[in-house]
Write a structure and sequence with these properties.
- GO terms for molecular function: oxidoreductase activity.
- The chain is of the alpha/beta class.
- It has one domain: TIM Barrel.
- The protein has 13 helices and 10 strands.
- The strands form 2 sheets. An 8-stranded parallel sheet has the order 3-4-5-6-7-8-9-10, covered by helices on one side. Strands 1-2 form a two-stranded antiparallel sheet.
- Helix 8 (about 185-190) links the parallel strand 8 and strand 9.
- Helix 2 packs across helix 3 and helix 2 (about 30-45) runs parallel beside helix 12 (about 290-295).
- It starts with a strand and ends in an 8-residue tail after the last helix.
Length: about 325
């Protein structure tokens, strides 16, 4: 496992880290014992960073992380998020009283005295423009409740706006072969300002594994069923904003990327990690086998300049026009 510095912070995090949205819920049936085994396997392989949120299973993923990392609080870092347990458009959700309450609740569920990275969870851009919430986060950092803070964003515009606040140490961004726009302008500027980049949904909700057919059926509690067209939250969070059937068809055209790299999953992750501006990739998982598959990226070859050019052209000519939602 290789480790990378999170922006200008002192945190060194594993380049392959993991997100815990899936084990908290909203990705179909999960089994807690299997989730704990998967977390243990990841840490055995050198993973020292996990991303979660207070709304993943109403805090269930935070509780699972508390169990899995007990006794490893100094060596295994946790990032969590806040604001979506309230009305994200209400300024009161970002008041000092509210943020403190969210923070204390997460600390309790995580069984920790400090959160390593505390992130605002995809807030509306008007909240970022106002900026008052960053002053609250500065206070929590000074008090030792949080080590660093950042923002999970939906769009490049939001990310660029966050770079104006000197305390921001990380941006969490949707980025994958199907969603390449953030790499053009946002990542280089973030790198210049010492802001780390965490990549969520690197496999486009599973499309880039190449395992789906157009006939795939998802459970009612899986966001890939109930948010397929952005019915519940930003459409970009599901299948990178692509219509599902179109995404499946496009993934077939990408089968070649896995030919020399084990499979499409590892190839898609390798493409992300080849970027010099990215701190880590945080794929999701529900079992040990998925953790093992994702970890396999560390041993596959990088893309050649010709392959990178081919993937960029593919995105520009065949993918970009079909992405829905602002990003």
């Amino acid at each position: 496992m290789q480790y990378r510095q999170l922006g200008s912070s002192e945190l060194q995090v594993s380049e392959v880290s993991f997100g815990t949205w899936a084990i908290g819920g909203s990705w179909g049936t999960v089994n807690d014992e299997e989730s704990l085994r998967a977390l243990s396997r990841a840490m055995e392989a050198g993973v020292n960073f996990f991303d979660t949120a207070d709304v993943y299973g109403s805090g269930h993923s935070e509780e699972l992380l508390a169990k899995a990392t007990k006794g490893k609080e100094d060596s295994v870092h946790i990032a969590t998020k806040f604001c979506r347990a309230g009305d994200i458009h209400d300024a009161a959700t970002y008041s000092e009283a509210s943020v403190r309450a969210y923070c204390e609740q997460s600390l309790k569920k995580l069984s920790r005295e400090r959160i390593d990275l505390y992130q605002i969870h995809c807030p509306p851009i008007e909240i970022l423009r106002d900026g008052s919430v960053f002053g609250v986060l500065d206070k929590l950092k000074q008090e030792g409740k949080i080590r660093e803070y950042g923002v999970s964003v939906e769009t490049v515009e939001e990310g660029l706006l966050c770079l104006d606040y000197p305390g921001v140490r990380a941006l969490q961004v949707i980025y994958n072969i199907f969603r390449q726009k953030p790499g053009l302008e946002l990542f280089p500027q973030a790198h210049q300002k010492g802001v780390g980049i965490l990549i969520r949904l690197p496999l486009a909700s599973g499309l880039l594994t190449g395992k789906f057919t157009e006939q795939a059926v998802f459970e009612p509690g899986d966001h890939r069923h109930y948010n397929r067209n952005g019915e519940s939250f930003n459409v970009g969070e599901t299948f990178a904003g692509l219509p599902f059937e179109k995404g499946v068809a496009l993934s077939r055209e990408l089968a070649w990327i896995g030919e020399e790299r084990g499979n499409m999953t590892r190839a898609a992750l390798r493409w992300i990690l080849d970027s010099p501006h990215i701190t880590c990739v945080i794929p999701g998982f529900k079992n040990v086998a998925q953790v093992e598959d994702n970890l396999g990226v560390v041993s596959v070859p990088s893309f050649t300049s010709e392959e990178l050019a081919r993937l960029q052209s593919f995105y520009e000519e065949k993918v970009h026009a079909h992405i829905r939602g602002a990003y």
